Amino acid sequence: MAGIEFDRQIFTPAAEAQRAQAPKAIGVILLVLALGLAGLVGYKVFTQASQSNAIASANAQVEQLQQQLAESQKRVAELEKHRRSVKAEVPVPAPQPVVVAKNPAPAKPVYRIAAGSALPPQPKPAMAAAPTPTAQSAANANTAAIQSELTANHEAWQATTDRLADVVGVVGQQQNELSETREAVNQLLSQTRRQALSFELLRGNNRMPVGPVTLQLKSVDAKSQRYSVCVYFEDRCIELKDRVLNEVVVFVVSKNGAPLELVATKVLRDQIVGYLEVPTDKQQR
To answer: Which residue among 97, 179, 218, 271 has its CA within the 20 to 30 Å range from the CA of 228?
Structure first.
């Protein structure tokens, strides 16, 4: 059987044509890659430039706002300084003579308060830039807050002044009552004839009869010159606690009895020396 024969010359031009077209395809691919890489680099450069411009613009705006805020704070500080100087320069009115009637009613003090907003007009600097609406609103808010605080402080001060006036009136009334009570006691004591009975008390359980009562020394503090004594009358103890040297201790032993006076003239380590003043008609027990 005869073999199949091929014409090899038919395939030879096709292979050579493919070999000739391969370098052209590679060049086109490299060109496309180069163009893509150039476009990517240009996009990155453009993006970075846009971001740098945006950051620079934002920084400039922030610096401008900070400058405006600093100017507003400076103007508020100047307003506060002028307000304090004007308040310090307000003259205090001289007290007017008061005509006292026979039974005058207690009058409350009258105070005159100057308004905190009475400030002289502030000249505008020639070269200063006009404040923005944000700065003006911030300054107005700060001024309103300062005015509100001043009003609250004034109201609190007025309320404290009224309370002090009421307390002074109550204290004066109590002092008058104490003076009347003291005068009544002194008058009662002066109307009673009295006799001084001396004693020397030792610390311990021993009791010492002195006039109508019996005394017992409970404790002694020679350093601070203080002592405590128990006064017995009809088996009842009246404790005179934490008394000092030369203190006149007035006490009564019965409901309708005359007051007695006890005075310690010496406070020693374990002993006190003194006297007891009793009415002359109540000496016997």
So the answer is: 179
Query: Using CA atoms, how far apart are residues 276 and 194, in angstroms rounded to an integer?
Result: 10
**Residues 6 or more apart in contact with residue 120 via CB below 8 angstroms:** 82, 86
Radius of gyration of the chain (CA): 53
Give me the residue label for tokens 């007009």. 121
Which of 151, 171, 169 has its CA nearest to residue 109?
169
Counting Cβ atoms within 10 Å, is residue 2 exposed (0-12), middle (13-18) or buried (19+)? exposed
Residue ranges of domains in the chain: 194-282
Angstrom distance (rounded) from CA 124 to CA 122: 6
Q: Amino acid letter at 169?
A: G
Q: Are strands 226-233 and 236-244 parallel, antiparallel or unpaired?
A: antiparallel
**Angle between the N-to-C axes of helices 133-191 and 11-88, in degrees from 0 to 180, rounded to the nearest 10:** 40
Task: Give this prediction's pTM.
Answer: 0.34
pLDDT value of position 282: 47
CA 118/CA 79 separation, integer angstroms: 11
Q: Which residues of the chain have pLDDT under 50?
A: 1, 100-101, 117-118, 128, 282-285
What contacts 234, CB < 8 A, 6 or more positions away? 253
Quick check: 146 and 99 in contact, CB under 8 A?
Answer: no
Sheet strand arrangement including 271-279: 194-202, 271-279, 260-267, 249-251
Residue 74: count of CB within 10 angstroms of its CB: 10
Q: What's the confidence (pLDDT) of residue 8?
A: 56
For residue range 169-205, list pLDDT tens digits in order.
788 788 888 888 888 777 766 666 788 999 999 988 7
